Recover the amino acids of this structure.
């Protein structure tokens, strides 16, 4: 299995940037498709982005973050990243990284097998 731990969240102003990190355990990290999700209080968990080193490291983004967020991974460091630019107040949420054992892209949280505990991102107006 894999264990995940997010970091890098904080309080920023609208228009600022943050980079989230997700440290993963396990020698098989590179074999897992990875995703970022977020959840605001009282709301459902929302898909943010996905990456798989396979197929040329293809990525996928939710429409709400496309063009502003970039997902990447450094398999040598067992770390997943989410670069967040041009942050908006509606980006405020707890951000979670997740891994799935199955192949292919999914924007459904239930398809992911391993989760971190989350890191808080708060964007003020």
């Amino acid at each position: 299995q894999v264990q995940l731990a997010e970091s890098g969240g904080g309080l920023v102003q609208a228009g600022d940037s943050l980079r989230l990190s997700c440290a993963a355990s396990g020698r098989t990290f590179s074999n897992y498709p990875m995703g970022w999700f977020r959840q605001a209080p009282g709301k459902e968990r929302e898909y943010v982005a996905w990456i798989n080193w396979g197929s040329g490291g293809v990525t996928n983004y939710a429409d709400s973050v496309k063009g502003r967020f970039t997902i990447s991974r450094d398999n040598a460091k067992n770390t997943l990243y989410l670069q967040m630019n041009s942050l908006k107040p509606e980006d405020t949420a707890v951000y979670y990284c997740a891994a799935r054992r199955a192949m292919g892209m999914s924007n459904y949280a239930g398809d992911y097998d391993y989760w971190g505990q989350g890191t808080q991102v708060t964007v003020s107006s």
